[in-house]
Records
---
Amino acid sequence: RSATITLDLSAAGATVSPRIFGTFVEHMGRCVYEGIYEPTHSTADAAGFRGDVRDLVRGLGATIVRYPGGNFVSGYRWEDGVGPREQRPRRLDAAWHSTETNAVGLHELAAWAESVGLEVMEAVNLGTRGPAEAAQLLEYTNHPSGTALSDWRRTNGREAPFGIRVWCLGNEMDGPWQIGHKTADEYGRIAAETARLMRFIDPDVELVVAGSSNHEMPTFGTWERTVLTHTADLVDHISVHAYYEEKPGDTASFLASSVGLDAYLDEVAGIIDEVRAERGITRPIGISVDEWNVWNQTRWNEVDKPAVFTGDWPEAPRLIEDEYTALDAVVVGSLLISLISHADRVSMANLAQLVNVIAPIRCEPGGAAWRQPTYFPFADAAHHARGQVVVPEIEVHTLDTPRFGAVPAIASVATIDEDRLALFAVNRSLTDAATVSFTAPGRVISAHVLSGPDGNVRATNGPDAEPVAPREITVTSEGATHTLTLPPVSWACVRVE
Ligand code: AHR
């Protein structure tokens, strides 16, 4: 099988926001505790954060971290997580039926984020709380000094403001599982009032209003329209959450998940345009895909949920620690291609989550940390997708899928930054390799693929070995035309300079 990727560099479009390569740390399961933070681990620093995990986080190349939830934020009192640790309360976390010790809070997370080069994107609780508490948190984080809240921050060891710019106005408020779940009108009103008050306090904040929890929600579409009707003149982004899983017997549709994400993003972009036009709003509104990933939710319902919702309130239980395969990594790669291709509309995106909980990084208490297969396409894109996007024309055969119909066997996108080009591609075929050619001036400076070792797309990584990892691949260049062969179910990253 062969494919031709045509790149019209003169038509390079939007610039990729570095914030598209964001991540997410929620107080859920073992993401924080026994994840980034484990004071007794042999690599822990003086603040209790694991050094081995920190190194892997740095290698991932993520740019911004959403915190502290997720569903968790909808019952969270941020004040519990500041001040002397020994005075912090233990609380029930009703979102994940766990006990929250509050050993980690805003100060610790912000210092850790700074140490790994991540901007903090803070979510406020619009489930059990409202505009007043959100504004108090903002005053605590961003006001220089001279008020009770800003001086409390200084007393707690942080003299300079945190200067947090990006704020999520609650989380998934459309979902009946959400603490403080609301109708679109109820949420739209509270989000608008919170936004107004937050802007009075700090006009420079960027605000993300919560869109639907997923594309299949019965309220999808009307939720976005209603919420934006209340808030379009007050917010900078609307969120999209998108998780994909393999349904039994339908690997082909799973491999085509990004076709679903493309359509989801186009629909939300259309709604933004409609509401802006109706309301005569000139300020741009980006899409913040602030939770996305492969997540086997069937497993969540069958294994994690019964295990946790037993009446116990464990500390940092093992929740949704999906073990990712090479196949999952290729799907993650295709979702990245979709996000980059929509750089004109996607202003931010956060791979959910960072460590242990549906994460590219896993670790064991007192033991090793390792990279899941999904780590690698993310790191490629985060390190090399720079500058303007070139959405290619692709001549290739199609594959039949039950969910999305006929889809192209190859998905691809390129970015160009001065004379540095990066091409990302996936081969969605379960059976056929594809010989792919593209034309771009310059010399190939690196090329690698990720696929199942010995064709085993179900291969995984673990504490002792990472058999699913990128390997170099030969690219034949004739003049400016470069040709490589993508194995079945593979991800490729090629750089030309
Ligand atoms: O990332 C796991 C959970 O998925 C988040 O807490 C929630 O926002 C979403 O439903």
---
Amino acid sequence: MTETTLIAGQVLQTHADPFSTPPEEALTVASGAVAVAGGTVRATGTLADLRAAHPDAAVHDHGDALVLPGLIDAHVHYPQTAIIASWGERLIDWLNRYTFPEEGRFGDPLYAADVAARHLDLALANGTTTTASYCTTHPGSVDAYFAAAAERGMRVVAGKTCMDRNAPGELLDTPRRAHDESADLLARWHGRGRAVYAITPRFTPTSSDEQLEALGALWAANPTCLMQTHLSEQIEEIAWVRELAPEACDYLATYERHGLIGEGAVFGHAIHLEAREVTRLRESGSALVHCPTSNAFIGSGLFDTARRKADGIAVGLATDTGGGSSFSMLRTMAAAYEVGQLTGAALHPAQLLWLATTGSARALRLGDRIGRIAPGMEADLLVLDLASTPAIAQRAARAETAWEAAFPTIMMGDDRAVRAVYLEGRRLEGRGADRTAGI
Ligand code: GUN
Ligand code: ZN
């Protein structure tokens, strides 16, 4: 018989989308437990009821700590781990000065394996159980990431970043190589264990029309894969796309004409959108990913989450490291709150937690597997200490509601708040943070 574990604490449950249902009805927090067995959630309820139903179960009682779904970072560049916090440039110069030279190192499989392991350990240390990562143009960089994720039991999304222009020669492929290498990688990895493949043209400035066409054909032939790319992040980038593709009516059209929009299409940033782009994104069921620390760090602009949700578009949340300035999805939620204030909407803590869990899961078309605590869902769970530092503890002590208790950790928390991480119901040994001690 499969062994059952009861994970007890203040359990966060997701009942509806907090952007269309009052947030405190959409998500609730109550003292209780989660019964997990065979890698999935079997039941939720009071600890007493679940103990009675499973008298032989092991009990992990986390007391006042918050038990929530593992956080989901819906857009990240693992090869940029070692160049996070690189000073002084806007997007295109930042790519040329810091990013491309670093990505050039990933032709070495040992280096790729080292950084892949480091990135995933940093993610786990911060309570992130799923990432959607760009790799580099080197196929070995994709193997390294999926292999490191499989070793840890993590569900990750990843893909070979395709580029055939406007980058250093050693990073360029061709339309044919982009197609064939991506096809080979997805045949080997997509659906193997917990791996999900994303066809990954970096963005229009570095992918020719021919390359986008080849990748559109590949996606059409493999529709269960995701497609991830960048859209309308920075004003200079959009002007460059206009120069490169003067016949396209807008930036999105450069993807759309090759079939690179639709369900399973995941667009990072998408800050500066035209009305037509918003309409087509909604009609096609494409998803957007908000990367607030990156958008501030690189000086890109303010993504209006509440407006895009009201437009009926799926929105996830992401660090976008190394353009983003933190590996922590808590810090990312705090940045999303601050950007919300600047765009006229104070996002409720329930909305922030939803974006980092269910919102990201849905953006990655994984909403039926991860991102909520409910029977049948994969048991990737996070336990957060809501009093992890003196500053947070003294504020949380004054809280009168569960949301008021959680908000100081959202705004001021970091990896010290991560008390436990479970992957498919298995508790990681030591906190994720301990696993990175050897770096
Ligand atoms: N646009 C194209 N490539 C990148 C990247 O690596 N980071 C960010 N932030 N934007 C991009
Ligand atoms: Zn990015």
